[in-house]
Amino acid sequence: MLLRQLEYLVALARERHFARAAAACFVSQPSLSAAIRKLEHELDVPIVRRGQRFEGLTPEGERVLLWAHRILAERDALRHELSAMRGGLAGTLRMGAIPTALTAATLLTTPFVERHPQARVSLSSLSSREINQRLASFELDIALTYLDDDALGQVRKTPLYEERYLLLTPHDGALAGQPVAHWAEIAVQPLCLLAPEMRNRRIMDEYFASDGATAVTPAIETDTVAGLYAHLASGHWSSVISHAWLQMFGVPEGMRVVPLENPAHGPRVGLVIADRSPEPVLSRALLEIAREAGVREALDDLLATYLHPVLPPADGAAQAPA
User: Fold this and answer.
1) CA angle, 149 as apex, 154 and 113 as ends, to 5°?
2) Tag placement on the chain: N or C end, fewer CB within 10 Å?
3) pTM of the full predicted structure?
4) Which range, of 30-44, 157-171, 268-282, averages the lowest pLDDT?
5) Which residues, 6+ apart, have CB-to-CB distance to 192 below 8 Å?
6) What's the first-to-final CA gap in the chain, in angstroms?
């Protein structure tokens, strides 16, 4: 059994098409097909369901695919370990992030690449379910996700920050002048929120319900933070946002942020890696960055600049934050 055969199998499972898989591996389709048939012969199991086109993997093939991901991940980890021993960490760190934490990823990836200029980061926006699956199948090295997710398997967790929720509303909105906002009050505003299938929205729905707002019906729902902000820029809608989103999007002109009374802190967000030994060197390097980056403090400081902006000096005298 050759590593090349496992690479072909992984490509075929990903592309679900023999010709596309062959193109992705820079080989001819007959060469790829022959290599997988040889792998089936060597393992003495059928791996691919064959018809006039690719029809998926057999149960044995799914098991072989899992081991293929694992073996190739260990191969890559060995290469990365050896590159570090030669004096320069190299290779690609495969990182996933839930969409609502993606805005904070730059606080880690930028210093990582600056410290290790020969290394690269492949960052994917994934649902928490996809992150769990890809960590389990060794398709990800590390992920930025909710740490309180019961579906997380055998992983090691590194907390980074707790989500803090804010009302983002037009400056002339009904709640704009309040020192704090309540979930029940927000529920009756013209709302744009994330879609119900997203974990962040489900968490918010629990807070709405705990404040007596059991039927929240936003006029606009979207599955991306960027889509949400695109609507907020119109000045017509209000939304509940995580303070981490300020890192990328800030506060649109004509809007203001209002803190919520409860909860003071939401669910924890952090890094997770598969519980394996030895720990992959690229993942270990990012965890070292995370321990130094002060993500929680950086996001809290950013939040403070929006909640307590420094006013411009009047008559040459500096003024304290509002």
Assistant:
1) 75
2) C
3) 0.75
4) 268-282
5) 218, 219, 220, 221, 222, 228, 231, 232, 237, 238, 239
6) 68
